[in-house]
Write a structure and sequence with these properties.
- By secondary structure, the protein is mainly beta.
- Helix content is 10%, strand content 17%.
- The chain is built from two helices and ten strands.
- It starts with a helix and ends in a 38-residue tail after the last strand.
Length: 210
């Protein structure tokens, strides 16, 4: 009986909007969200009310427990979004809930709504969020380095102090660093450019003013 129930739950999760590597423990929040507060699923936002009518006021169509909406009982138990209402979202009140579509300005990435202007995992994402080409209308965005970068206006930017920039995942001062002397931008181009990685000084040299 236990194995049979496990198979049913696993099949359900494969259809759910939130991708899971394993069945979550009871009360675990919907996995994959950037917030680490440990909050669980607060409610599910339905489009149709219990009378079969389209919801005029969203607050009238919120299931906040299995008792409110028995059809979503297992979703609340496992803190995942059901197949019918697949998108995980976190609102300004820091509440996790499931909805049919993302708010205006947000992209759908891995079954959840992300604010691509500031998302550290999907910085600059748009459309269907499934294309690695930055020029695509379905660009999946960049994953910013959480140690040295922030996502601002849809771009990963250095969070290093002062005039320092990120080179090889570390904050360096391009005016004095002997390994990346004169580096610029994202410090990845071997040839001089706006993203030049600079010059490595010889043992008998030191970097001064880049």
């Amino acid at each position: 009986m236990y194995k049979y129930k496990t198979v049913i739950i696993a099949a359900f999760l494969l259809l759910a909007g939130c991708s899971l590597e394993s069945v979550p423990e009871r009360g675990e929040k919907c996995p994959g969200l950037e917030d680490e507060s440990g909050k669980t699923l607060q409610f599910i936002q339905k489009e149709i009310d219990n009378n079969g009518e389209k919801c005029e006021r969203p607050e009238d169509c919120r299931c906040s427990s299995a008792d409110d909406c028995p059809e979503f009982a297992e979703s609340f138990e496992l803190s995942v979004c059901p197949p019918k209402i697949p998108l995980c979202h976190i609102n300004a009140q820091q509440e996790y809930y499931c909805m049919l579509s993302c708010p205006v300005g947000q992209a759908v990435c891995d079954g959840r709504c992300v604010q691509s202007e500031s998302s550290m995992d999907y910085c600059g994402a748009r459309g269907d969020c499934n294309d690695s080409d930055p020029d695509s209308k379905n660009y999946m965005g960049q994953k910013c380095n959480k140690e040295t970068e922030i996502c601002k206006d849809g771009k990963c930017k250095s969070s290093c102090p002062g005039n320092q920039i990120v080179c090889d995942n570390e904050c360096i001062d391009p005016l004095t660093d002997d390994e990346y002397c004169g580096a610029k931008g994202n410090c990845k181009d071997e040839m001089p450019s706006d993203n030049y990685m600079g010059t490595a000084c010889a043992e008998y040299e030191e970097c001064r003013n880049g």
